[in-house]
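Running co-folding for adenosine monophosphate.
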Amino acid sequence: MPARIPNGKPLRLVLLGAPGVGKGTQAEMIHERFGACQLSTGDVFRDEKISCEENLSVTGRAALDFMRRGALVPDDTVLAIVTERIRCLRCSGGFLLDGFPRTVAQAEALEKLLQSENISLDAVINYDLPLEKIITRLSGRRTCAHCKAVYHLASQPSQRPGVCDGCGAKLIQREDDRPESVQVRMAAYEQNTRPLIDFYAERKLLRTVTATGSPQEIFRRTCLGVLGV
Ligand code: AMP
């Protein structure tokens, strides 16, 4: 049974931050503790790639191509995917948006969508980490091809190299964690996503959490600094 935040209300959060700051891991931990529904647009694209690449529409294939290169998928495609999953936004346990919005146009569209549903955000958590630490995290990250558990070659290695501790499947490096894609992703973040910090600060929703240290330390900071628990 998930814990509740003090006022007993569902949590509705956007998790913001550059690629590799650990938003996905924090989303997982917040979900486990508080039960809010997790929506990661990156996971949606990766799942489509695994399950039905051959049957994808032209738009779907183009989206995967953007993703492989580390570039942002066009706003229309992303918004269509989120709108298809509107039930996540309506979830009575609340929601955690991980990797969405990533552009001002997406943030404006989300604002309209939430207004039309009469739902408001509790906070936007901006996970902050210096660039050189981000590059180290991304280049050493390995992901389980089956259960999506995340490891790091240096800071969180699996017990047997290349094998997931949880399910025994192979660990892989995401295509977009390779150096050439990482550069494109960081540029896309600087140009398109960083402006969302001001966007949400103006709306008094922004809370910044330093993303150094272990996932547990970052989670403690999130709980104390943002959720007040
Ligand atoms: P992530 O797992 O969040 O790092 O996302 C992986 C990739 O999916 C990104 O590098 C983009 O190519 C694509 N993607 C995920 N979410 C979005 C979004 N909100 N807008 C545009 N592209 C996205």
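Result summary
The beta strands are 11-17, 37-40, 94-98, 123-128, 141-144, 150-152, 171-172, 206-210.
DSSP finds ten helices and eight strands in the chain.
Job closed.
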